[in-house]
Amino acid sequence: MIRKILSASLLAALFIATPALAEEATIGRPIEGGSLHEGHLDMVAYYVPVDGDLLEVTATFAPKAGGDPQRVVMGLANSDSVAFSIPGHPGSLYAFSRSGKEVTVSTEADTSLRADATMP
After folding, report:
1. pLDDT in tens, 20-34
2. Where are the domains of the chain?
3. Cβ atoms of residues 103 and 97 within 8 Å
4. What is the DSSP-derived secondary structure letter of residue 87?
5. Pairing state of beta strands 20-27 and 81-86?
6. pTM listed for this prediction
């Protein structure tokens, strides 16, 4: 009996301690695409070199439930990083970072934020 209670408590603690789902993609060449599919949005991104050392990253976010896609275009210099959420989807955090000619894109979907966002 105690073993069952401890197992259930441990299982519940694991779910509480890991509120985020994470996914990552690295883009290593111009026009090479990377995609993420965690959470309520699908995202695809690529970059092209512009103005010397700047890389222009384009990311398109499409809701899985349908609706209009949203596009973000940003310039990243070496060692730059940025993180943001998409309007209407505050529970998902997207991060873009650059190291040399590689751009890493990641998402972290915090399920507790999604639950709070739907509360009245």
Report:
1. 558 999 999 999 999
2. 19-117
3. yes
4. T
5. unpaired
6. 0.73
